[in-house]
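Example record for the data management plan.
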Amino acid sequence: MGKVFLVSPEAPVEQGAAAGEQRSATGAVRLAILDNSKSNADHLLAMIIENVRRELPVASVTSLRKANPSTPAPKPMLDQIEAEADFVVSAMAD
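Corresponding structural encoding:
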C-alpha cells in the first residue's frame, strides 16, 4: 500500500500530526470531508477523494458542508466527524 502525505499549507512538514488509531475493522481508512461552502470547494474535495481512493483502501466517506465559510463548523458536525472518521480533509476554494 502506498503512502499519502496530507500537509496543511500553514504548517511546516515537520509539524504534521501523526495518524491516530484506525477504527475501521477492515483496516481501511474512514474519511470525513468538510466543505467550507466556498465556490469550487466541492470540486476540489471530489478530486481529493478520487485520488485518495486510488492510493488507499477507503471504508467510508462522510461528506459535510458548513452553512457559511466565515463561521466555524458547529459542534454537532465536529462530533459527527470525530465519531465517523479517522482522517478529515477540509478545503477552501474560489
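Summary line stored alongside the record: Residues 26-91 form one domain.
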